[in-house]
Amino acid sequence: MTTEVDFYELLEIERGADDATIKSSYRKLAMKYHPDKNSGCKDSEGRFKAISEAYECLKDPQKRAAYDRFGHAAFRNGQGGGGGGQDFNAFSDIFENIFGEFMGGGQRGGQRGPRRGADLRYDMEITLEEAFQGKSTDVTVDVSAACDTCSGSGAKPGTSAKNCSTCGGAGKVRAQQGFFVVERACPSCHGQGQVISDPCNACHGEGRVEKTKTLTVNIPPGVDEGTRVRLTGEGEAGARGAPAGDLYIFLHVVRHSIFEREGTTLFARAPISFTTASLGGEIHIPGPDGDLHSIKIPAGTQSGRELRQRGAGMPVLQGRGRGDLVVRIEVETPTSLTSRQRELLEQFRATETGKEHPQTTGFFNKMKKAVAG
């Protein structure tokens, strides 16, 4: 009686080992017991053949599942294990349970008949103002649509498709290879389960024809770059009456000359005169809604200060309220002065004590201390 060593023990791995672990362990052991490194050693040669056999089994997901279920009996081709025919049938059932999901599995999730049509993509550019307000617009696309002549069936009017005689309408055929049950698409109907003996002249049996369609797209207020609008059932028509795919409209917001956007917040740069920055005042920013937003400038405002106007930004997509408008202030130094303006500024400079510019005074005081130190 021959002693059969467990394949996992031969490869020195756990039963739940992943593929990378199996491969790594096999390589290490194969190098150790390879006949070229153990010349004349019968034990090493036998061990090398055994680990090779174990690796050939466990590296294959189907064979490994069979081994985990039935052990060495799964590979005896009917010898031992309580009767070859019963073992084969039992393994066929468990193989179908395990792999039926991936191979069609008959009625357990197998897909037969015409497939759903493909989804389509359409890229559309809109302005920031359109993203703010929302809009309704038409797009023209070339798609495969259901054939009007045969109503998408693919069969000549007055006729209909019939169940495939090869697969009996299942769309799949089975064949036994060793202890495996292999299931594949029916070669006669190509997996559709039905055949058309008298195809439609307009679509040649496809059930769909090329058409140009004009569709209305409703863009809601508050959309952003990359927002998708889905038009259900407006993609490619499925073959022979199968459901159509969807059309996805990808939105791209054109760069604005004034505003930058982060979510629902709008940012704008606003240059102001140094007198307005010094004395305070008010500026007006036109928003994407068409309104003028008044921004109050506090006296003593410095460059880089951000002033926030609540509720003056972009609308919340499919929600309530709006984001904010943030204005970044840039104080502009005059570059051209009249003699009178220069005279007034000279008079102002003559009255300066340093308290008017605390940052400037503080900076140079630090510099003096650093040099003195």
TrEMBL record:
SMART domains: DnaJ
PROSITE patterns documented for this protein: DNAJ_1, DNAJ_2, ZF_CR
Sites where the protein binds Zn(2+) 2: C164, C167, C186, C189
Zinc finger (CR-type): 134-212
Gene3D superfamilies on file: DnaJ domain, Heat shock protein DnaJ, cysteine-rich domain, Urease metallochaperone UreE, N-terminal domain
Domain of life: Bacteria
Keywords, comma-separated and alphabetical: Chaperone, Cytoplasm, DNA replication, Metal-binding, Repeat, Stress response, Zinc, Zinc-finger
Cofactor(s) the protein needs: Zn(2+)
Note on domains (UniProt): The J domain is necessary and sufficient to stimulate DnaK ATPase activity. Zinc center 1 plays an important role in the autonomous, DnaK-independent chaperone activity of DnaJ. Zinc center 2 is essential for interaction with DnaK and for DnaJ activity.
Family: Belongs to the DnaJ family.
Protein name stated in the entry: Chaperone protein DnaJ
Gene coding for it: dnaJ
